[in-house]
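User: My collaborator and I are trying to settle a disagreement about how two of our proteins should look. Neither of us wants to argue from intuition anymore, so we agreed to look at predicted structures for both before our next call. Could you fold the first one, then the second, and keep them clearly separated?

Assistant: That sounds like a sensible way to settle it. I'll keep them separate. The first protein:
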Amino acid sequence: MITLVASLSVDLGTYGGTTAALNTAGANLIAISVSSYGYGPAPTVTDSKGNTYIGLTSRGAPVAPNARHRIYYVLAPAVGANT
């Protein structure tokens, strides 16, 4: 059974940034969907619990070649009130 523990949607703007803390207590999977636009480096994903995120294959859009989308995940993550 899959149960949503927490969710967050944020627009980090042109230069990226940090999201608000999220309570992930009880989660056994963290999945993050990241979209970006531009020619700079690909976004990186970190959290305050030191989890190592695995990135799936990055995908571009045929109509906007510099648009990117990638899903990152952690199985059996360190979780808590401020992930």
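The second protein, kept apart from the first:
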Amino acid sequence: MSDPVPDPAQARLDEQRRRAIAYLRDTFPTPPTCPMGHEEAAWDVTEPVQLSPMAGSLLASRGYPVFQVVCTRCGYTMFFNAVIAGIVDPLG
């Protein structure tokens, strides 16, 4: 039986998530506590996603690439700009 063929899209997402975690560790050496009171919070980091402005906004045709840091106890979510973090190329 042969090894499964790696999915290039999944490999790219995994690499972006790894870079997001590295950015957080370099930028914030002390892990944050959850502002909802979970001092022993565990955090999950997502791959980048695109947030879009509301319809009718002056920027409606543009989106914002972000990655999320989510408290695994309550779901509190922080958003970080993926371009500033160096994870996503601003030109696509």
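Some points you might bring to the call about the second protein. Strands lie at 43-45, 49-51, 64-71, 77-81. DSSP finds one helix and four strands in the chain.
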